[in-house]
Design goal:
single chain, about 250 residues, alpha/beta, Rossmann fold, seven-stranded parallel β-sheet, 3-oxoacyl-ACP reductase
Length: about 250
């Protein structure tokens, strides 16, 4: 039997990149998946089509995770479509690289609202449905500890996610809800290409400090998400799992 048979998952920010790979990987192991998106309906529909073409179950649901009503609606759609909820992957995120001189109020609030508040709001909406236990997986970043230049705000959001993960693992443990984070290094996605990270000095620096000698692919992260969502990780909670070829 598949590892996630009869489970239902919500994956936020799943229209591309890591989120899309996670959604497809969870579905391949038997989960029905809510593919959340904020702007790219085309991308989310393509992920749903890939899942259903492979025999899985999925639905695309629009919603801005930083808005309370939207976060609640994303979870409500999971219950409406599939009748239950077992797995939440808080993947939706934005980033902007900027030196301290270039940090703006707008950039600060956008990153903290989506990356941090969005994680809290979706989790808040989900926990009443994780009856008898479930798995919450927060997508953080190696940037939370790496102290890379020009990442003060973004790294701050991911440091917050690491702390929230630990706090919620204790707060929700009595309900048998596990809470972990995945902390990737640079992953080759549409987003890292568009942002100019791939091929940049930052890219070269991270690669030079990566023992396995190459950057990540979305599927590298998705495989870890499947593990954390499954009963194979039943005794793991409150962990920040580094996935970055050894980058520290």
């Amino acid at each position: 039997m598949s590892k996630l048979a009869n489970k239902v998952a919500v994956v936020t920010g799943a229209s591309k990149g890591i989120g899309a790979a996670v959604a497809k990987a969870l579905a391949a192991e038997g989960a029905a998946v809510v593919v959340n998106y904020s702007n790219s309906k085309t991308g989310a529909d393509a992920v749903v089509d890939a899942i259903t073409d492979a025999g899985g179950k999925a639905v695309a649901v629009r919603g801005d995770v930083s808005k309370l009503a939207d976060a609640q609606a994303i979870v409500d759609r999971a219950i409406e479509h599939f009748g239950r909820l077992d797995i939440v992957v808080n993947n939706a995120g934005v980033y902007e690289l900027a030196s301290i001189e270039d940090v703006t109020e707008e950039g600060f609030h956008q990153q903290f609202n989506v990356n941090v508040l969005g994680t809290l709001l979706v989790t808040q909406a989900a926990i009443e449905h994780l009856v008898g236990g479930g798995s919450i997986i927060n997508v953080s970043s190696a940037a939370s500890r790496a102290a890379l230049a020009r990442t003060a705000v973004y790294a701050g959001t991911k440091g917050a996610i690491d702390s929230i993960t630990g706090v919620l693992s204790r707060e929700l443990g009595s309900r048998h809800i596990r809470v972990n984070s995945i902390n990737p290094s640079i992953v080759l996605t549409e987003g890292t290409h568009t942002a100019g990270i791939v091929g940049s000095d930052l890219d070269a620096l991270v690669l030079s400090q990566t023992p396995l000698g190459h950057l990540g692919q979305p599927d590298d992260i998705a495989a870890v998400a499947v593990f954390l969502a499954s009963d194979d990780a039943r005794w793991i909670t409150g962990d920040n799992v580094r996935v970055g070829g050894g980058f520290r």
